């Protein structure tokens, strides 16, 4: 059986499906990134301290690192109100909101296909 070259490129070519899915997986990889995203999905805007309280076990250092990475990937928005003491809030960006149905679909897939 011959494989259609165009179909192969669409799947595994340099700009194919595999490349794009791997990029999304890299964006959400990290022990705490999914809990952060789902927490921001549940509440439109939240402060760093509240995220730490809501995600048991996460250190301030790792939380800050993951928040920066999620912001760099344009999945969340950091709003600094320029006040003293510092007042910073995080929310999902439009891109982050568009990702959530994909993550919810993964959740439902997992529920329907227990290990």
If you had to describe this structure to a student in words, what would you say it looks like?
Keywords: DNA-binding, Transcription, Transcription regulation. It holds the Pfam family HxlR. Residues 11-115 form the HTH hxlR-type domain. This is ArsR family transcriptional regulator. It comes from Tianweitania populi. The structure is a single chain. The protein is mainly α and 115 residues long. It has one domain: Winged helix-like DNA-binding domain superfamily/Winged helix DNA-binding domain (Arc Repressor Mutant, subunit A, Orthogonal Bundle), CATH 1.10.10.10. Helix content is 60%, strand content 10%. It is built from six helices and three strands. It has helices at 5-12, 17-28, 33-42, 48-54, 60-72, 94-112; strands at residues 46-47, 76-80, 88-92. The protein has a three-stranded antiparallel β-sheet with strand order 1-3-2. It is elongated. The mean pLDDT is 92.
What's this, in brief?
With 115 residues, the protein is mostly helical.
What structural keywords apply?
WH_DNA-bd_sf; 115 residues; three-stranded antiparallel beta sheet; 10% strand; elongated; 3 strands; Arc Repressor Mutant, subunit A; mainly alpha; 6 helices; HTH_HxlR
Write the CATH homologous superfamily: Winged helix-like DNA-binding domain superfamily/Winged helix DNA-binding domain
Query: Which regions are unreliable across 5 or more consecutive residues at pLDDT < 50?
Result: none
Q: How would a textbook summarize the main sheet? A: 3 strands, antiparallel
Main sheet: strand order: 1-3-2
Mean pLDDT across the residues is 92
Q: From the helix content, strand content and strand pairing, which structural class follows?
A: mainly alpha
Number of helices: 6
Number of domains: 1
**Number of DSSP E strands:** 3
Question: Under CATH, the topology is which?
Answer: Arc Repressor Mutant, subunit A
Helix content: 55-70%
